[in-house]
Amino acid sequence: MHGRDASPPPSPADRRLTAIARHLEGSSAVDMDSIAASPTSASARNSVFDHVVRAPEDPILGVTVAYNKDASPVKLNLGVGAYRTEEGKPLVLNVVRRAEQMLVNNSSRVKEYLPIVGLADFNKLSAKLILGADSPAVQENRVTTVQCLSGTGSLRVGAEFLARHYHQRTIYIPQPTWGNHLKIFGLAGLSVKTYRYFCPSTRGLNFQGLLEDLGSAPSGAIVLLHACAHNPTGVDPTPQQWEQIRQLMRSKALLPFFDSAYQGFASGNLDIDAQPIRMFVADGGECFVAQSYAKNMGLYGERVGALSIVCRSADVASRVESQLKLVIRPMYSNPPIHGASIVAMILKDRNMFQEWTIELKAMADRIISMRQKLFDALRSRGTPGDWSHIIKQIGMFTFTGLNSEQVAFMTKEYHIYMTSDGRISMAGLSSRTVPHLADAIHAAVTRLA
Ligand code: KET
After folding, report:
1. Which domain does 253 fall in, by range?
2. Does residue 1 form part of some domain?
3. Are both 343 and 376 inside the same structural domain?
4. Last residue of a domain, one of 348, 373, 408
5. Which residue from 425, 126, 180, 134 is spatially nearest to 291, judged by alpha carbons?
């Protein structure tokens, strides 16, 4: 069980073999059909890309692709973690609209390239938001923060830096975790292993397993931690458990890499949700933090995020930053200006910041109220099973415990879209759609026990 190898990315040779096998099995039926129907089939067959097989859709973003193709009026997308209003519509926060209006009206604003590390104000304010306004690490200039392409880009830049400059090339990620972690760290060249996290029978934290697996990790290994609102399980350690994790990790010189994609979404409070990170920074040790503004500011498609690396001294931090620039420059040169300008404006202005926290709390509260509504709806239907985890879990998702067969049934019969691991995005639900979901779950668990 300890530190099991997550399946490594296939080698080019493996991929070719799989591709050939699939082709022989005829599973590339879509390709074959389109080739047969096309008058240019002869030249298409001679393409230099003939060997390219169709890749599967992404396990999360592919759910939206399937949803978009469904013509049913009752269809419901609970796949991707994206906030929806009670009317089922995407939400642009009022404070974000206001900031954008001010940016547009300010004719002195230009579209010049940002520096490689991004907008200076944005970086400074992002570090304070996650580490605390009075963080000694920030005050001592021991933190380098670079603006990146949302949470994913921040994780990837951090991973590339570690692959180049860190002595230990093994990273432990929780089992289960957000599906992209394995790919991000694996493709950066790190060796990815897992630590036990979730206990399916209690639907809670497997704390003993977690301590055992981190306890037997090699000294110096990197450990990916979800700062709050663990995706997909909705299960977080308690503050006491965090303290034990911190002590164990520091005693073994394990390097913490926090993924903070949901600050403010777990408790509704930005400071409370940052507490686990601040515990690690308070002990003076080093730590990585990838921040995303996709969910908490609703800036999904603007791709705004930051990577902060907390170092032992200002001198190390500035050398680390110089190397981060060498990672970023050949990857995308420098980050986009619009989203970061919105964030910087909101974080800088006391009134706007206040307005943001109120809107953020309202989103978190609506999600919590959906938990209660879904739980009540299942109870009133007498749906077999203990569904209390729906109200106990935290953040954007409920890890329902439904299996892939039950999920497929709900999609086919009820047009409800979710990831095959049984995760539902509570933020995609509304009072109007809860009964439909409850009917579907009830049918799935009674027919496919
Ligand atoms: N970390 C976690 C834990 C996470 O759930 C997401 C997104 C990200 C990072 C990256 O988000 P970004 O948009 O790059 O800031 N998760 C949702 C969307 C996705 O899969 O891309 C999701 O799980 O539905």
Report:
1. 113-348
2. no
3. no
4. 348
5. 126
Residue 124 known to be catalytic = no
Query: Pairing mode, if any, of strands 397-399 and 255-260?
Result: unpaired
Whether omega for the bond prior to residue 232 falls within 30 degrees of 0, making it cis, is: yes
The 3-state DSSP composition of the chain as helix, strand, coil percent (nearest 5) reads 50, 15, 40
Radius of gyration of the chain (CA): 23
Structure tokens at 200: 């399916």
Residues 327 and 403 in one domain: no
d(C-alpha 250, C-alpha 281), whole Å: 11
Q: Are 131 and 311 in contact (CB under 8 A)?
A: no
For 125-163, how does the pLDDT look when each residue is reduced to its tens digit (9 = 90+)? 999 999 999 999 999 999 999 999 999 999 999 999 999
pLDDT tens digits, 380-400: 999 999 999 999 999 999 999
CA of 62 to the centre of ligand 1 (A): 14
Contacts 24+ apart (CB under 8 A), 20-24: 22/53, 23/53
- Nearest C-alpha neighbor of 381 from the set 327, 422, 343, 436: 436
- Integer Cα distance of 210 and 194 in angstroms: 10
Cβ neighbours around 134 below 10 Å, total = 8
* Number of domains present in the structure of the chain: 2
Nearest CA to ligand 1 atom 23: 81
CATH number for position 393: 3.90.1150.10
Whether residues 303 and 339 fall in one domain: yes
Instruction: For residues 335 and 395, state if they share a domain.
Output: no
* Whole-Å CA distances, 129 to 92, 217, 256, 275, 277: 21, 31, 19, 11, 11
pLDDT of residue 449: 79
* Residues 371 and 341 occupy one common structural domain: no
Residue 10 within a domain? no
Sign of the torsion angle spanned by Cα atoms 90, 342, 334, 192: negative
Out of 61, 152, 197, 419, give the residue to mutate to test ligand 1, the one with the largest number of ligand atoms within 8 Å of its CB.
152
237 lines ligand 1 (CB under 6 A): no
- CATH number reported for the structural domain that contains residue 122 in this entry: 3.40.640.10
Q: How far apart are CA 20 and CA 258, in angstroms?
A: 40
Q: Which amino acid, residue 207?
A: F
**pLDDT of 29-46, one tens digit each?**
334 344 344 555 555 568
Q: Is 387 a catalytic residue?
A: no
Q: 273 and 336 share a domain?
A: yes
Residue 249 lies in a domain: yes
Cβ–Cβ under 8 Å, residues 340 and 147? yes
pTM for the predicted model, two decimal places: 0.89
